[in-house]
Design a protein that fits this description.
single chain, alpha+beta, Herpes Virus-1, OB fold (Dihydrolipoamide Acetyltransferase, E2P), 2 domains, 8-stranded mixed β-sheet, 3-stranded antiparallel β-sheet, 11 strands, about 20% strand
Length: about 250
């Protein structure tokens, strides 16, 4: 009987030792990685989002605009005695030069912005949407100046979308509701009904400020600009540069 009790005691001791080792193995940290490599992260569940690199080729991912011609790359392009088709100002190389492929008139970049905003991108000379940047690689024909019609209050409706010159007496100067746009009225009518010259807020400072416009009241003014027919405000001559105010008497 005594020997049986000893065997039972030994068996219990062995079972206790095995149980304690198992608990230590569960709580022990994993073995350090070999050669200093970082341990592998546990596998993430299928619902975890992992961003993937784009499969598109980087050569086709970005398109650069053609570089605008400068004085060093102008080559044989002759722009002497030519002016901006919209403003009538002399052309300046290096500040952005554009040409209509159809009628060959030239524009500076600022004039192209006005045409895109107010004339649907159509050339003020031929009404074609063929204005392209002048680049060193593109071949351009000899340019020309735009044909500018001299209009009156009797025929201005026939020249919408074109650059024109107009001269008449100013009745009043109106200010927009937001207080930053101005209408120089050539007729004694409301803003929406009368024929006028408009100067938007982005160009007011360039033409000399609001006081320059108010000083035109009662005087005869000759201007050059883009004639548009606005759906709400009617017929307008858009002025964006001081050079477009040709004369004040």
């Amino acid at each position: 009987m005594e020997s049986l009790l000893i065997l039972v005691a030994v068996f219990l001791v062995i079972a206790l030792v095995v149980y304690l080792r198992g608990q230590q193995d569960r709580q022990a940290p994993p073995n350090p990685p070999r050669n200093g490599a970082a341990p592998r992260s546990p596998k993430q569940p299928a619902t975890t989002y992992r961003p993937r690199a784009s499969k598109k080729a980087t050569r086709q991912g970005v398109r650069f605009k053609p570089s605008v011609v400068s004085s060093s790359s102008v080559g044989d392009l002759d722009i002497s005695d030519l002016v901006d088709a919209l403003t009538g100002a002399p052309l300046v190389l290096g500040s952005g030069l554009y040409q209509c492929e159809n009628c060959r008139v030239f524009y500076q970049s600022h004039s192209v912005e006005v045409i895109r905003a107010e004339n649907r991108g159509q050339c003020v000379s031929c009404l074609r949407s063929t204005i392209v940047p002048v680049t060193a690689r593109r071949e351009h024909q000899r340019g020309r100046n735009a044909d500018v019609a001299v209009i009156t209050l009797n025929n201005y409706q026939q020249h919408v979308g074109h650059v024109i010159t107009f001269e008449d007496q100013v009745h009043t100067v109106l200010t927009s509701r937001r207080g930053s746009d101005y209408a120089v009225m050539f007729e004694n009518k409301s803003w929406t009904r009368g024929f006028k010259m408009v100067v938007f807020r982005g160009a007011v400072k360039d033409i000399g400020g609001p006081q320059t416009l108010f000083n035109m009241v009662g005087r005869k003014v000759r201007v050059r600009g883009l004639l548009i027919q606005h759906q709400r405000f009617g017929y307008e001559i858009v002025i964006s540069d001081r050079t477009q105010i040709l004369n004040i008497q």
